[in-house]
Amino acid sequence: MNLLPSFNWEEPLVGRNNSTQYIGTLGYASAMSNQTDTIKIEVSLREPLLTPHIVAAAKTILLDPVSGNPAVPPVPVRCISKIEAMAEKFRAALTRREVAIRDFYDIHYAVTNQGLVPGDAELVGLVRQKLAVPGNDAVNIGTDRLAALRAQLDTQLRPVLRRRNFDAFSLTDAFGIVRDMAAAIEGQA
């Protein structure tokens, strides 16, 4: 933390799942709220990447009120490729023990705003490979899962999105995209 003195560990990184996943929370003094806000950090060491890593710029949406420029300059970060990140999102949406609305939102956003093609052969193949990794729960696209997602709309999704982003989200469409991926995986068997 010497390089970033404005951050401190609220919850230090702790290994879980036989040290294949590390989770911690950083705290910082928010200039906006005059209180300590947090950033959750998750690091997964569960399996090797299927595609080469990329270097991308981590950016902030916080703008300097005077200049209008980002308050913090972009920081280069090594990360997984976009297609592999989306394959991870599909795996989570299909198999996560406790379904999470954020996975469905991210998939819907990528399809409607970033040109992700869910039927792309490379993406379907990556999802299939990720589902084959031991330790995944079974694919679940049942109505009980959809009901659990509906219950999360106002409690877990609305509070973290801008109104226009929340209003543009269709859970029905997102669930359909994930259901279609499950069918595509099945069709490749």
Short description:
The protein is an alpha+beta fold. The protein is 40% helix and 20% strand.
Structural key phrases:
single chain; three-stranded antiparallel sheet; alpha+beta; 40% helix; 189 residues; 5 strands; 20% strand; globular
Describe the structure.
The chain has helices at residues 82-95, 101-113, 121-131, 143-157, 163-168, 171-187, and strands at residues 7-16, 21-29, 36-44, 54-58, 75-79. It is of the alpha+beta class. The protein has a three-stranded antiparallel β-sheet, with no helix packed on it. It has a two-stranded antiparallel ribbon with strand order 4-5. It is globular, with a radius of gyration of 18 Å. The termini are far apart.
- Largest sheet entry: 3 strands, antiparallel
Strand content: 15-25%
Give, in spatial order, the strands making up the sheet with the most strands.
Answer: 1-2-3
Distance between the termini: 48 Å
Number of helices: 6
Topology:
Blueprint: E1 7-16, E2 21-29, E3 36-44, E4 54-58, E5 75-79, H1 82-95, H2 101-113, H3 121-131, H4 143-157, H5 163-168, H6 171-187
Antiparallel strand pairs: 1-2, 2-3, 4-5
Helix pairs in contact: 1-2, 1-3, 2-6
